[in-house]
Structure formats: structure tokens, C-alpha cells
Design brief:
4-stranded antiparallel sheet; 3-stranded antiparallel sheet; alpha+beta; 9 helices
Length: about 300
């Protein structure tokens, strides 16, 4: 789709703009293909089916092609095989940091365009403007690296198990392994963009957090994933728990008549349901927390 002449948000060239995804389209394609019904629902409006994620008319054809090439490589080399359980150590080069920066830039630009960003302190807002300009210029090849505005990548490759996890929401596996979402997060004096894409999360650092991240930084040159040792800030764990709880609340808000239609869809194609990734992840939560994790209300059958 194209519109009239306007400046490209990335390079500034005037011309027809493409409709571009903020979270890459392959994430939502994977969600549909691996769901129990072939459909996905909006996280903020779970009664509504969606086919895709948030899109903006932002980029010229050249910049859209630039992003598409990075997305294709991430999808083929990491996202698809690792999401299917084929986890092997992968060597990467500078394409990975460029992919991550492209996602972080889109989230930050969206936040700056659509929201007042008043949850950021004055210093964080200054840093956010610096991050947006730095990521944009890095993606255009005007800067050799993103500097202090680092990119971090976390893959959630396996379920949490070993009995009930009393301090975790009982849908934590469903969130970590299949959740999606974008955010600009503050954590004390620190701030970062957040992109949840199924089993992957990308973080673009705006202002450094007090606690260090270990084993998550994407290098500019060569590197290898997954890292064998990962240490995350304690407050990030609390943030992820809060996001999982939001997903749980949204799921339980689905009206009974809508839920009945969903369950009828499942009954009509039980073979697909039982073979889907969505079902497998549900069973991970049942194993970790008990079958009650899959019930929508106490005493439900």
C-alpha cells in the first residue's frame, strides 16, 4: 500500500510511503500457524480476532526493503528454527544488531509519535531523543555503532518447570514463549524499549539500569547465540511477571459466550489443537502449576 508524497521517518526522503510493521509480520504469521485454531486475538481486546500487528505508514520503499532484509535473516536463522525447538548455537555478524536496532527504533519512534512519554523523567526523555537519533543514523550507515544505546536479546527457549512456582503467574510459560507486545519501560533511573516476539525479547537501552545485564548484549561484530550464562536485573523479572498477569487478566475478561465459541472451534478440530505449539505451551504451565493454571475460574470443569 502506498500513499501520497511525505518524508520517510527513517531517511527523510520525500515520496510514497509503505505501510510498515512495528513488530515484524513474521511473528504474527508464526502465531497463526502454531495456534490451536489458526487465529490470533488482540491482547488489548481479546474478543477481537486479528491477522497482524500494529502498522504505520512510515517508510519509503528503500528503507522498507532495508528492514525486510534484516527481518528475513532473523526469521530464517533464529526465529523459525528456535521456535520449532531446533536450538543450536548460531554465529552471527552485524546483521543481528541492525535487526534489533530497527525494532527498537520503531518502538521508540511510535512512542514518541503517539504518547506524551510523560512516564519518563526529564533526563530519560533527553536520552530517548538521543537514542532515536543514534539508532536512526546507525541504521542509515551514518554512525559506525549505536554507542551507549545498546541492543540486548533474550530467547525464552524452554519452559519453567519443577513444580509450582509460587512467586510466578501460572501463565508465565504462555507469556514467555508465545506473548507479544511493545513498551517503553522505566526501571529506576534506567529506561529501555521492549519488544516481545514469541520466544524472543529485544531490548533497546535508552538509559542504563542500575543492575547489569550479562550474556544478553548483541555485539556489533561477530558473536554466538545462545549465551551459556545469562544474568538479568531483578526488576526485569518483576516486569515480566506483571506483563504475564496483564495477559491473564485480559484472557479472563473474555465473555462466556465468546469463550464458548472458541471452545467449539477447538472441539471441531481436536487433532490440530493437540498438535499445536499453543497446546504444548499450555501443558508446560499445567506441569509447572497444576491443571488449575488452565481454568478460567475456580471450580471450572
Amino acid at each position: 500500500m502506498e500513499a501520497g508524497v511525505a518524508p520517510c521517518a527513517l531517511c527523510g526522503t520525500h515520496g510514497p510511503l509503505k505501510v510498515s510493521h512495528i513488530v515484524p509480520a513474521f511473528v504474527f504469521r508464526w502465531l497463526r500457524e502454531t495456534s490451536s485454531t489458526g487465529h490470533i486475538r488482540a491482547g488489548d481486546a481479546p474478543t477481537r480476532r486479528v491477522q497482524d500487528g500494529l502498522k504505520k505508514r512510515w517508510l519509503c520503499g528503500s528503507c522498507e526493503a532495508r528492514f525486510s532484509g534484516l527481518e528475513r535473516r532473523f526469521c530464517n536463522e533464529l526465529f523459525n528454527p528456535w521456535s520449532a525447538g531446533d536450538v543450536r548455537r548460531v554465529d552471527y555478524s552485524d546483521w543481528l544488531i541492525r535487526f534489533c536496532a530497527s525494532v527498537s527504533w520503531r518502538i521508540l519512534r511510535h512512542g514518541m509519535d503517539e504518547q506524551p512519554m510523560d512516564h519518563l523523567s526529564e533526563a530519560q526523555q533527553v536520552a530517548a531523543r538521543g537514542a532515536e537519533e543514534t539508532w536512526r543514523r546507525f541504521l542509515l550507515g551514518e554512525l559506525p555503532h549505536p554507542g551507549r544505546y545498546e541492543q540486548h536479546l533474550i530467547p525464552f527457549l524452554g519452559p519453567l518447570g519443577g513444580g509450582p512456582q509460587h512467586d510466578l503467574p501460572d501463565n508465565i510459560n504462555r507469556y514467555l514463549m508465545r506473548g507479544t507486545g511493545i513498551d517503553v519501560v522505566t526501571m529506576g533511573t534506567g529506561a529501555f524499549t521492549y519488544a516481545k516476539m514469541g520466544r524472543f525479547a529485544v531490548f533497546g537501552m535508552i538509559a542504563p539500569t542500575r543492575d547489569k545485564w550479562e550474556g544478553t548484549k548483541v555485539n556489533l561484530g561477530a558473536g554466538r547465540l545462545p549465551c551459556l550464562r545469562v544474568v538479568l536485573p531483578g526488576l526485569l523479572r518483576e516486569y515480566l511477571k506483571a506483563q504475564a498477569l496483564k495477559l491473564k487478566v485480559a484472557d479472563r475478561a473474555i465473555p462466556a459466550h465468546q469463550r464458548a465459541r472458541i471452545e467449539e472451534e477447538l472441539r471441531q478440530n481436536l487433532a490440530r489443537f493437540h498438535s499445536s505449539d499453543q497446546y504444548a505451551v499450555m501443558m508446560h504451565d499445567a506441569d509447572a502449576f497444576g491443571i488449575e493454571a488452565l481454568l478460567h475460574s475456580p471450580g471450572e470443569g
